[in-house]
Amino acid sequence: MTVTAKEVKNLRERTGAGIVECKKALVETEGDLEKAIEFLRKEGIATAEKRAQKETKEGLIEAYIHPGSRLGVLLEVNCETDFVARTEEFKSLVRDLSMQVAAASPLYISKEEVPSKVIEKEKEIYRAQAVKEGKPEKILDQIVEGKLKKFYSQVCLLDQPFIKEEKKSITNLIKEEKAKLGENITVRRFVRFKLGE
Predict the structure, then answer these.
(1) Which string of DSSP letters, residue by residue, matches 24-79?
(2) How far is it, in rounded angstroms, from Cα 158 to Cα 172?
(3) Which domains are seen in the chain, by residue range?
(4) For residue 128, how many other CB atoms are within 10 A of its CB?
(5) Cβ of 178: how many Cβ atoms within 10 Å?
(6) Segment 30-44 mean pLDDT
(7) What angle do CA 7, 11, 14 make, to 5 degrees?
(8) 185 has pLDDT over 50
């Protein structure tokens, strides 16, 4: 199939992808613009996954103070290059993440950071609750795992639903940004201050 320069230009304007990638996407999708956009997004996410092992030593530290000055957040988000760190897309992501920390009060970045003592205590509580409710022994483990997943979505930043788009998790938000920016992005650390706490 032949792809016109106008079609390639149109796709580039919509996605920001390179000429070669746009042409390949249009050929693969037989000139269907919407399918080509989806193709590029999938390719971008696949590329971002490959880059996940790349070191992230650049980035930004964002200070967010909630109106009324009773709540504040300091957050460090890293990327691979200072070029990406200076882009509006990256800055916007960091702002969104700092507002997420302010609004949703996560305690940890990811479930890997949750101490095993905390996990064991939660499992013990969930199991005791399920037994008290008279749930059958054979499904106790499933119930505990389900409640643990919900626990992670409350206390782990990466597992939380994005405050601006509830159907999307923070992990998926960051994956999308990795795909757009073509670099690995990691949340390094955060601290949340609330007056009187």
Answers:
(1) HHHHHTTT-HHHHHHHHHHHHHHHHHHGGGS---EEEEEEEE-TTSSEEEEEEEEE
(2) 8
(3) 5-52 (1.10.8.10), 56-109+156-194 (3.30.479.20), 115-154 (1.10.286.20)
(4) 10
(5) 22
(6) 80
(7) 145
(8) yes
Tens-place pLDDT, residues 58-106: 999 999 998 999 999 999 999 988 899 999 999 999 999 999 999 999 9
Q: Identify which has the larger pLDDT, 2 or 27.
A: 27
Q: At which residue do the structure tokens 């064991």 appear?
A: 120
Q: Which residues contact 171 (CB under 8 A, 6 or more apart)?
A: 158, 159
pLDDT of residue 46: 47
Pair 171, 112: CB distance under 8 Å: no
Give the Cα separation of 49 and 15 in Å (integer): 19
Which residue type does 47 have? Answer: T
